[in-house]
Amino acid sequence: xKKQWQKVVQLVMVAxxxxxxxxAGAGEKPAAKEKKAKLQIEGSTTVGPIADxxxxxxxxxxxxxxxxxxxxxxxxxxxxxxxxxxxxxxxSRFMKAKEFKKAVEKGIMPVAHAVAMxxxxxxxxxxxxxxxxxxxxxxxxxxxxxxNWRQLGGANKVIVVIxxxxxxxxxETFHKLLMKKxxxxxxxxYVNSNPQAHARVKTTTGAIGYVGLGFVDKSVxxxxxxxxxxxxxxxxxxxxxxxxPLFMFTNGYPKLGSTIHAFVTFHLTEKGQEVIEAKGFVxxxxx
Length: 287
What we know:
Layout: H1 2-18, E1 37-43, H2 48-61, E2 65-71, H3 74-82, E3 88-91, H4 97-105, E4 110-124, E5 132-133, H5 135-142, E6 160-164, H6 169-178, E7 189-191, H7 194-202, E8 207-212, E9 221-222, E10 224-225, H8 232-236, E11 243-251, H9 259-264, H10 270-278
Helix pairs in contact: 3-4
């Protein structure tokens, strides 16, 4: 049964890569009704800034299209696409096999559009003297085996451990690639979004957390991970250990010429690349 669903996933990816129309996007109206079209986008808080920026550009170009962007997490985006509540699901992780299975059972055929590259950046307060950690040290922090910065060459200060909530695609990436799916300590504090994780670390001298590259600024400090600094270059080449693509999912390949098609392929244009770079992420194109 597992192999059958793996085949379904492979077929869906081939459909997306070959750009072969597989049916209209979820909730898309016929061309005759596009004058009052609504474009509903839901999902990742990481991809949210990209979706917001794309929506701003499209709002100026498509005056008769109402675009709504909801940012509550990758899992929520997948659920919304499966239930037909959105046209585009933004996700900072790939859709899970069980999500594909549920989608197909409901007549939904998810197609992935990789719109940018990102890195999950481990951040601390700018006053923290620690500049680099290994994957093993971070795992021990999140497992509760290292509890004071003094154990890592820092100040005698208790480590306040911040994590994204478990429905987040950023959490999924961190949990899989860095934590190796090991259980975290009970005292870990969970937050609902990248902005909340950023704010918590920014205002807490002993904190450690993780956010997407687009949320790293001067008010927090990104650490070297296994000797590699998270930069556009190290993320684009995959040298940074927690690099990942960011996705927009549609129900089938969207109808050519539709607003949905224009939105999910905007990243392939020079203007789309400029928007992605302006938001601090890494384009998949290189003009």
